[in-house]
Amino acid sequence: MRWGVLLLALVTAGCATPAFSAEQVRLTLDGQPVLDAPALQARAEAELSYTLSFGYVARTGGAAVSCWFARTGKLFDVDSRLWCGPVQVPGTAATTDWVPVPLKEVERTGSGVRLEVQPPQVPAPGARSTPVGKLVRTDGREAAADQGVGEAGPDFLAVLPDEGQQVEAASAFVRDDQLEVRVTGYAKPVSWSTDAGELRAEHGVELRVLRLAVTRHGEVDSAFRQTPWRGWLPQPPELSLDVPGRRHRLPADRLPEQGSVLVVYTVPAAGGGGAEALVLNTVGAKSLEQRVEVPSGQVAGAVAGVLRRAPGPESTSVSTPATVGTATGSVEVVRARLGRQRPVAFSDQYELATAGPGTALLELRLQGHGLPTVVGAWETARLLVAELPDGSRARFVGARHGGDTMPVAVVFEVPEDVRSVRFSVMAGTVTLPQLGTVSVGGGEPGVVALDF
To answer: What keywords sit in the KW lines (predicted)?
Structure first.
């Protein structure tokens, strides 16, 4: 009888033991047991430690980053990837991200399937990667993929919608011909409210917030969408944020075409290691890097002088008389734009012209009034003149022709500090389709103000 009671006690105790081993959880892949599953988790976690140390992702939360299997169905059938986190991919929102780690099948026997850990598939900056379904560990623990907002660790950087939160005023800007970014606010909060919860920094780092006003000229300026191109295509510029010990690229698709965003990030609490700075890289054959400290706006290193000026207003209206054959009308400057690079026509293709040291490219967008509507802008472009304040003529760089008598735009090389030009049409003879050889003339120059 005593033996029966003892046996019953042992059986009862065995049934009450939590399912905390891989054998009891019975993780399976396509119905076959996963062999040595705890070792797979450990190996993936070791691989991810390198990802964290290089700043490709940031910790979110006080606990160590761990790797989990994702359940794909009933019981414990799992995905052929491990999911490591919770982390935050720099450039995404403030909520939880996960890094997938593929598992390669190396052997399948009657005992089960043996897998091998592959390199982590780290999402690109600004891209999210989230498992579907419940996460499970080999010790039986389960978790949801969405864990809200945790604590921001080193290398944390989130790009969030600007909802008008209060920050201190700041003034800094950096631009090239495709992207213009202005720092209009800066903060050093203890915590920051997001849609997913209150964000705090973990021990050893502090939160910072930048408000950025963004204009992506390359998206809204039709000149950069001309085709076909000769030589280098205009490449999108790359905007980054430098913090002590790390450079974070701000993903272009997280920035508005025109509007403002908030960048929430962490810096070491101890300070030192250099100032925070926005870095703009113009990419291509005539590459350029500009670095501006935030929130002070101090420019670091040499930079093209024209890029420290505004590009110019969206519209203007300055006219000069013009005659083509017997027709009398005018050519109106509808927009003046200063920059370092502008697209111009080269035969039947386009190329990107670049200003030399100490100079700028002035583009004048044009519209003809009262003139014949015939194709022939490549003939009339050479008769358009921009006169500098000292009386000399600005060097003609090129034009974009369009389908009218006058070009859509003409580009001149001017001094980088120029404040005005006198625009006019000089007399000459051109040969135009349908009209043949005709005379072209002008009149009193129009003064184009460039005091921006």
So the answer is: Signal
Confidence of residue 273 (pLDDT cuts 50, 70, 90): low
- Residue given tokens 């408000």 in the structure block: 211
Condensed to tens digits (0 to 9), the pLDDT of residues 14-56 reads 333 344 444 457 899 988 999 999 999 999 999 999 999 999 9
Nearest Cα neighbor of 155 from 232, 50, 251, 53 is 53
Q: What does the pLDDT look like over 68-83, one tens digit per residue?
A: 999 987 778 999 999 9
Torsion of CA 263, 293, 170, 259, to 10 degrees: -40
Counting Cα atoms < 13 Å in the Cβ hemisphere of 439 gives 5
What residue numbers bound the domain in which 285 lies?
157-303
Region at 357 (left for phi over 0; alpha for psi -120 to 50; beta for the rest): beta
> Which 3 state secondary structure label does DSSP give 179?
coil
Measured CA to CA, the distance from residue 418 to residue 450 in angstroms comes to 7
Q: What's the predicted TM-score (pTM) here?
A: 0.83
pLDDT at residue number 26: 82
User: Which residues, 6+ apart, have CB-to-CB distance to 110 below 8 Å?
Assistant: none
CA 259, distance to chain mean position in Å, is 14
**Do residue 182 and residue 295 come from a single domain?**
yes
Which residues, including other chains, have CB under 8 Å from residue 361's CB and lie 6 or more apart? 306, 338, 339, 340, 341, 342, 353, 354, 355, 397, 411, 412, 413, 414
* Contact by Cβ (8 Å): 252, 127: no
Number of domains in the chain: 3
- For the cut 80, the answer to whether the pLDDT of residue 2 exceeds it is no
Q: How far apart are CA 180 and CA 404, in angstroms?
A: 31
Question: Checking DSSP bridges between strand 151-152 and strand 197-201, what pairing results, if any?
Answer: parallel
Question: What is each CA distance from 187 to 93, 239, 272, in whole angstroms?
Answer: 18, 20, 18
| 249: nearest Cα among 206, 279, 285, 276 | 279
Residue 243 reports pLDDT greater than 60: yes
Q: What is the DSSP letter of 95?
A: S
| Last residue in a domain, options 148, 175, 202 | 148
CB atoms within 10 A of CB 347: 8
